[in-house]
Amino acid sequence: MSNVVSLFNDTQKYEERPVVVLADDDPSIRLMIRHVLESEEFDIVEAADGIEAIKAVEKHHPALVLLDAVMPGIDGFTTCKQLKDKGHTDIPVMMITGLDDDASVERAYDVGAIDFITKPIKWAVLKHRVRSVVATVVAERKVELLAYRDTLTNLPNRLLFADRLEHSIDRSARHRESLALLLVDLYDFKLVNDAFGHDAGDKLIRAVGDLLARSLRRADTVARLGGDEFAVIVESISGLDDAISIADNLSTILEHNVRLDEQETFTGASIGIAIYPEDGEDARTLLKNADTALFRAKEKGRHCFQFYKPEMSVNAMERLDLENSMRKALDEDQFVVYYLPTIDIHKNEITSIEALLRWDHPEKGIIKPGDFIKLAEDCGLIVPIGEKLIRTAAKQLKVWRDEGIDNQNVSINIAPRQFRDMDILALFKEVMHENNLEPTNFTIEVTEGALIENVGEVEKVLNSLSDMGMTIALDDFGTGFASLAYLKDFPVDIVKIDRRFIEGTPDNREDTAIVEAIAGLTRGLKLRLLAEGIENERQLQMLKGLGCQLAQGYYWSKALPAEQYEQFYLNRFYNIG
């Protein structure tokens, strides 16, 4: 790919006036050939010998080279061979020769010439052959160029970006300078696609590409690597302060200046940054470390950039190992479902159970969701794992009903990615049909974070599930995204208070005030309130006094495997065993 950059820059020029290098030691021959070919809209670069011809080729990367076979110094045959040895195999060479013996013709082909013109030159033949060869070269270069240009934005694509990064590193090494590699990933791109269609998504990508290109120097490289990810190469930076300034500027520009059809669109970007030579002395290492920094930036949220730090690689390897272990666990059926009872605290009865995922690791034992669910969501494994949980819980309900425990309702958590990447409605209809269950057998739990990630789609699905007869619970209320609008606009039946507010009550005044406020809010909206993490009688009595109806916690039971939960249920309510 050594000639990719010159190819990218020169192809359009060659389409208008292709360059031909002409090497002949006879000025009069050069003059006549120039006159003939310039009338055909070619640009002629003259050389008086082989050495000048080689320099002209390296400078202009022409569409064709015309070489006189016999010249002082190095002859045309030797010049042609040296050009090919230097890597200019994509540039055709035609020999002009007064030698008509078979050995000379064969030698011309052996050194890489594609054709030869004999002297005295027949001008009509020269024009025809040059036109034909150059037209083929230009057409081939146009086709080749498509492999290096992103068709949507007209920016360099991943292949050309890789070549430019190599060249940038070489220049930086020669001049002993630093360069910054920035990977830019957009927020809300899928939301634009889902809400307005793929045409709008394409417009957004083009607008961002144009904005990035206009925001940087002409010498900098902006490339689209695919999807909503862009790359920026900035050479000759003086240090971290330059990189910070560039990243901050790009973040601010993308946050406020992207327009679609005259309407301003508020998007955001995460940016990962790696610096040469500190973060890598070759393109592969630099790109890998920038990607690691981008991953960390995406974890922190929108309008965020992150520099690479060596410890990130260690964390990335640990995450990769965990992801691989999760994939193996899914294949080997290591994920199991535990059941946590929900109690009506006024009747002291079990009203439902929450199905909770556990990882039964062959070496580490039971691993709780907090240690793997976030990664499962990031890498997409939450979709097959979540489907397994739904199917397992539904089958268990059927088993209990067949055993005479027929008043069970199971609560299932649905992650944001499940709303995006799976047909939740179709899945629940399927499992209900397979297990002869009703919608009233299910409660769907969603977090406030899930509601704000894809409002339109989530609201549509929840309304459909609610219309079917399922109960909808809002989990972790008050932990960072709390909004009255969610309780008014979504079909919420139950609000769950996170355990972190319960554990400080009734002694912690702030926690108690929050619980009282949420209790008052739900009473006013006629919603049921469920408190998590009840551990003692004082907490229970306080919640009863606030009108809380439902609760979970160690006060009654921890989450249990199906067999142990069944025994707990029977022991508590039928005094069996």
CA-atom Rg in angstroms: 35 Å
Q: Tell me the overall shape.
A: elongated
Q: Could you give the order of strands across the largest sheet? A: 13-14-16-17-18-19-20-21
**Percent helix range:** 40-55%
- Mean residue pLDDT: 84
The major sheet is characterized as: 8 strands, mixed, barrel
The counted number of beta strands is 22
> How many angstroms separate the termini?
77 Å
| Portion in beta strands | 15-25%
Q: How does the helix and strand content classify structurally?
A: alpha/beta
Uncertain segments of ≥5 residues (pLDDT<50)? 1-12
Number of helices: 23
Would you write up a description of this structure?
There is one protein chain. The chain has 577 residues and is of the alpha/beta class. It is built from 23 helices and 22 strands. The strands form 4 sheets. It has an 8-stranded mixed barrel, surrounded by 4 helices. A 5-stranded parallel sheet has the order 2-1-3-4-5, with helices on both faces. A hairpin with a 4-residue loop joins strand 13 and strand 14. The N terminus is likely disordered.
